[in-house]
Design goal:
This protein is mainly beta and 631 residues long. The longest helix is centred in the N-terminal third of the chain and has 10 residues. A hairpin with a 2-residue loop joins strand 15 and strand 16. It contains six helices and 33 strands.
């Protein structure tokens, strides 16, 4: 077995502390938390949530979007299976969150949404866990991390060779099939996942199909070297009524948006221990996305004529840094410094059809970014923990940006109570679409910026549970928006978002566990009474898991979302009412190898809308069967 790198040994006391946020099943103690830091063990003092495989199986959600709804501070809008999922972290814009798949950035700056990511292509069957870190993250990830980061992580593999096949079928034409294979590779391991999915048509006009393959290989050669290789391919097809068209209930035109995309991602990283104090880490990745959409436009009016585009994105990234891990008495210091390089290019062959005139809306842009960074963490026993990171990014065509983050946590009683505080800054480069579109682009746009601070307390309730409270305050500046007077993108808005998140977990007995979360968010646009769309002030949820026997479990998950403002061209602005939804998942391990599960989405058949004219999917049962081989 290869020797454990020195910095991992120094961080070992932190792993048991986990991430602070919604009290959810944490990653196992021997799992490294890799999101929001280059030191691979996010401390308890910094904000985050881990959704592990146990929780994914227990809830039985049909997709990533429904699972993320259970996270405090995260609000999702998904107008049907074929509509693009939008994620608002603590009231921010959907493109203010960095999305990673096995650490590879997958935000797309060629699309009209300014660099967001449609994570519907990801299958829960292919994931080992999801890590969510809130707050400004540019000091770690550079551009885009104004509000936080979400990392979707596939299984690392290892142990005896094993395979699993799973099939699932449900109402409205829902189908899913998956294959997982994993085992040892020398002292390391490998995993391979393949999934095919058809979401059916639970909402009229809204369909989504996805096929994908992903894999990881972990190598532990001699000499203190640990290396990982990973890759992913996804092919998606979808239809939906256009956004803001009024959906199947209000749209005048009955033609549908048609979209398809192919994603390729390849990555590698290594960790090389040079002795008890020093180690070197490196990462390299390539991401390629080829997407196409065609829209019939929206009637009445000429606000959105027929339009479409083929967008191509290529992103290459490489990083190298050295890490020092040292200790004296009860104090432990871990620090790293290094540099990274990113080259990204985007092309769009778009059009807007004004009837007799078809106007091209094409662009081709490329930019390089060089980043220098340093990060450190100091722990004094089980009482104090301090963390700081600083980064300078020099992006082609823009002034250099310097961002940072500071965090601290304090526990006066061996971890039973933990107080924490965190502050940071971030920036986001204008998207290729915002800069280059011949119709609305503006080459002189400035980067959007954010500052964020938060404070919180985590209180253990003996051995039975935990209570976590977080207060946050964000400020976003130079937000890019479309000026209706000039029909060009401009920097103008300043938005503040503050609020509170409360999470709790309590084991009433060995067989019954309750979890709850509540989020309140207050958003203000400077010098304006304008209310931002699709941001409810209140949202929350309650889940109960009952396991009367080792081979049986029943999960009930209730979600509440308060009223929010929305807009559609046929109706103008409307306030959507608050809504409730209850989901059920009943699982039975028939044998050690065979597992059956019955899930019911929207158990009470609640009627509500997440976007004007798009009704929610109603009562839908899903039956799944999973069988394991080997292991």
């Amino acid at each position: 077995m290869a020797a454990e790198p020195a910095w991992r040994a120094a961080c070992a006391p932190l792993l048991a502390l986990g991430l602070v946020g919604a009290p959810t099943p944490a990653a196992a103690v021997d799992e490294m938390v890799v999101t929001g830091t280059r030191l691979a063990a996010t401390p308890a003092g910094l904000p985050g949530t881990v959704l592990d495989r146990e929780l994914i199986d227990a809830r039985g959600d049909s997709g990533v979007a429904d699972l993320l709804r259970a996270v405090p501070g995260v609000h999702l809008v998904q107008p049907g299976a074929g509509g693009v999922s939008q994620l608002f972290m603590r009231g921010s814009e959907p493109n203010f969150t960095v999305f990673l798949v096995d650490g590879i950035k997958v935000n797309d700056p060629t699309n009209t949404r300014g660099g967001s990511f449609d994570f519907a292509s990801l299958s829960l069957a292919d994931l080992e866990r999801i890590e969510i870190v809130r707050g400004p993250e540019s000091s770690i990830y550079g551009s885009d991390g104004l509000a936080g980061v979400i990392n979707f992580i596939s299984p690392a593999g290892g142990g005896p060779l094993a395979a699993a096949v799973e099939g699932e079928a449900g109402g409205d034409g829902y189908r899913r099939a998956s294959l997982q294979l994993g085992g040892a590779a020398g002292d390391g391991g490998f995993s391979l996942q393949a999934t095919s999915r058809d979401d059916g048509e639970a909402v009229p006009g809204s369909t989504y199909e996805a096929d994908g393959v992903s894999g990881r290989l972990r190598l532990l050669p001699a000499g203190g070297l640990v290396a990982n290789l990973y890759g992913r391919y996804a092919d998606t097809r979808s239809t939906s009524f256009p956004e803001q068209s009024g959906g199947p209930e209000q749209a005048v035109l009955r033609s549908l948006d048609q979209a398809s995309a192919r994603d390729y991602a390849l990555g590698a990283d290594f960790d090389w221990s040079l002795g008890p104090l020093w180690s070197i880490q490196g990462q390299a990745s390539h991401y390629d996305r080829d997407g196409r959409y065609d829209s019939p436009g929206i009637y009445p009016g000429d606000q959105v004529p027929p339009n479409g585009a083929r967008n191509e994105l290529r992103r290459d990234h490489a990083a190298l840094h050295a890490t020092l891990a040292a200790s004296a008495g009860r104090a432990t210091l871990v620090a790293t410094a290094g540099a990274d390089f990113q080259d990204e290019s985007g092309e769009s062959d778009g059009y807007v059809d004004f009837g007799p005139v078809r106007i091209p809306n094409a662009f081709s842009l490329e930019r390089d970014t060089i980043g220098l960074f340093v990060e450190g963490r100091l722990q004094a026993g089980e009482t104090w923990l301090l963390q700081a990171s600083l980064r300078r990014d020099d992006a082609e065509g823009f002034a250099a940006e310097t961002t940072g983050r500071l965090g601290a946590s304090y526990s006066p009683n061996d971890g039973r109570t933990r107080l924490r505080a965190d502050w940071g800054t971030a920036f986001k480069l204008p998207s290729f679409f915002a800069l280059g579109s011949p119709l609305v682009g503006e080459p002189g746009l400035r980067p959007e910026k954010s500052r964020g601070a938060e404070a919180g307390i985590v209180q253990r309730l003996g051995s039975a549970g935990e209570l976590a409270l977080t207060l946050f305050d964000y400020e976003f500046e130079d937000l890019i928006d479309l000026d209706p007077a000039t029909f060009r993108n401009v920097n103008r808005d300043r938005v503040t978002s503050h609020g509170a998140e409360l999470g709790a977990s309590l084991a009433l007995s060995p067989a019954l566990v309750l979890r709850a979360h509540v989020t309140w968010t207050d958003i203000d646009v400077e010098h304006s009474d304008r209310e931002l769309l699709q941001r409810p002030d209140w949202r929350g949820g309650l889940s109960a898991r009952w396991s009367p026997a080792q081979d049986w479990s029943l999960d009930l998950d209730w979600l509440y979302v308060g009223e929010s403002l929305d807009y559609a061209i046929p109706t103008a602005e409307q306030t959507l009412g608050a809504w409730n939804r209850l989901d059920l998942n009943l699982a039975w391990s028939v044998t050690a190898r065979l597992r059956l599960a019955l899930a019911i989405d929207n158990l009470l058949d609640a009627g509500y809308q997440e976007a004007i004219g798009f009704p929610a999917a109603g009562f839908r049962p899903r039956l799944s069967l999973r069988y394991r081989f080997g292991g």
